[in-house]
Design goal:
alpha/beta; seven-stranded parallel sheet; two-stranded antiparallel sheet; 11 helices
Length: about 450
């Protein structure tokens, strides 16, 4: 009968196995907790299907480059209610130039905020910076900030030139990089308002203004002022909306009808008094320009607009040229405006004309040169995917998700750190053993 060698238990190997088991148990426990937390969370709201302009402008693709972080858009209007979940964290304290308060008030026409209504200015803010984190209204620049500048008490009342002019200057002096004005006045460009828009132009601030809803030439409103980009409205067929004003002043068009609203109580309200118009188109144009300014924070307003002029949906296949007095240069495609290089010798006839009428902008307002690189303040660097050069958007659906919840991100970070520490402990213990099972420890 032969002798069999009795196996010897290696305590060092056992210790290592126990440490490994403990590590896996810890990781499994934390991962289970994360899974349960995610399962218990309400799902992120998707953008409403009625927001047909989101896929048309290829907003999903634009968000791979920027969501508007670091840019403040002034909404010179009826004020903005900041109680809506879709505007949570987006609305800064502003100013009320027709009463008391800081502009974060916007009583609806025929009701008040406690009754579930809001007015014109809030709708514009939703189009610009809605996050879809509340009831699902998705803006185009959900990381931008809204500066509410109340110059009219509620929808349906006449807007006076004085408060509008004050509001534009106040916006410039309080950090706005884009001023959105979806209001009209009577007569040609009012002197007071014209001077305020010139002030914005000289300080490298982009002003966008609605062309008006009279189905007539752009003559009697703010959009006729030099220094303001006049914006008309289009419909889903990419033709001029029947009500939209037109003329040689028209710079861009953007979707303006039909629209959808939400109430303060969260209900979806298709249609309604404020469901379309060049107001909506103006807010959408302001939001697309906010994405571009966010991605190129050191670029001058002129160069930002140049990028927009050469990256549009216009149906022509060539860019930087006006389509017509009905459609201007077309609808800005923000992804291409951020990701595509300008052609050599790209011009900007709009700013060239303004320079003749208003003089050059104040030096130092923004560094000129279309080669300005995005700073670390941009949301993301441009995608390496080759762009198609400003043709029609590819129709990818706009996402309403505002990202992974912060709590989940924190837990994921904890899991990663715990795993890293545990691995380090196991490796360190294994290195302490000169041999394990007859083999030297790994290097």
């Amino acid at each position: 009968m032969g002798w069999h060698r009795r196996p010897v238990r290696d305590d060092r190997l056992t210790t290592r196995k126990r440490a490994t088991r403990r590590w896996w148990r810890s990781v499994t426990a934390v991962a289970t907790a994360v899974a349960l937390l995610i399962a218990g969370m309400p799902p992120a709201n998707a953008a409403w299907a009625e927001e047909w302009w989101l896929p048309r402008l290829d907003v999903n693709k634009a968000w791979t480059v920027s969501k508007g972080a670091g840019v403040t858009v002034a909404v010179v209007d009826t004020g903005v209610v900041d109680k809506l979940g879709d505007l949570s964290g987006r609305v800064l304290p502003g100013v009320n130039l027709v009463g008391g308060g800081d502009g974060r008030s916007d009583p609806g026409d025929g009701c008040n905020e406690s009754g579930g209504c809001y007015s014109h200015g809030t709708q514009m803010a939703l189009l610009i910076a809605g996050t879809a984190a509340g009831q699902g209204f998705q803006g185009i620049a959900p990381a931008a900030k809204i500066l509410p500048v109340k110059v009219i008490s509620r929808t349906g009342l006449d807007a006076d030139d004085g408060p509008i002019a004050q509001g534009v200057k106040w916006s410039v002096d309080h950090g706005a990089k884009i001023v959105s004005i979806s209001l009209g006045t009577s007569g040609s460009c009012p002197d007071e308002v014209g001077a305020a828009i010139k002030y914005a132009y000289q300080h490298d601030v982009i002003v966008v203004a609605g062309s008006g809803n009279d189905s007539s030439p752009v003559m009697g409103n703010i959009a006729a002022c030099p220094g303001a980009l006049a914006v008309g409205a289009t419909n889903p067929q990419f033709t001029r909306a029947s009500f939209s004003n037109y003329g040689p002043q028209l710079a861009f068009v953007d979707p303006g009808t039909p629209n959808v609203q939400e109430t303060l109580s969260g209900a979806k309200l298709p249609g309604g008094d404020n469901s379309g118009g060049t107001s909506d188109a103006t807010a959408i144009a302001a939001a697309t320009l906010a994405l571009i300014r966010s991605h190129f924070p050191h670029m001058s307003a002129r160069d930002v607009v140049t990028h927009a002029l050469y990256n549009v949906h216009n149906g022509l296949g060539k860019f930087g040229v006006r389509i017509s007095d009905q459609l201007g240069y077309g609808e800005i495609l923000p992804y291409h405006a951020m990701a595509d290089a300008l052609p050599a010798g790209a011009s900007n006839p709009i700013y060239d004309q303004w320079a003749k009428e208003l003089g050059p902008p104040t030096p130092g307002g923004g560094s000129s040169g279309s080669s300005a690189a995005p700073s670390s303040g941009s949301d993301e660097q441009p995608s390496s995917e080759p762009a198609s050069g400003g043709g029609q958007a590819n129709g990818s659906s706009g996402s309403g998700s505002s990202g992974i919840p912060v709590g989940v991100i924190i837990l994921i970070v904890v899991v990663v750190i715990a795993a890293g520490v545990s691995v380090a402990v196991v490796v360190r213990r294994s290195k302490r053993s000169s041999t394990v099972g007859g083999y030297p420890p790994p290097r």
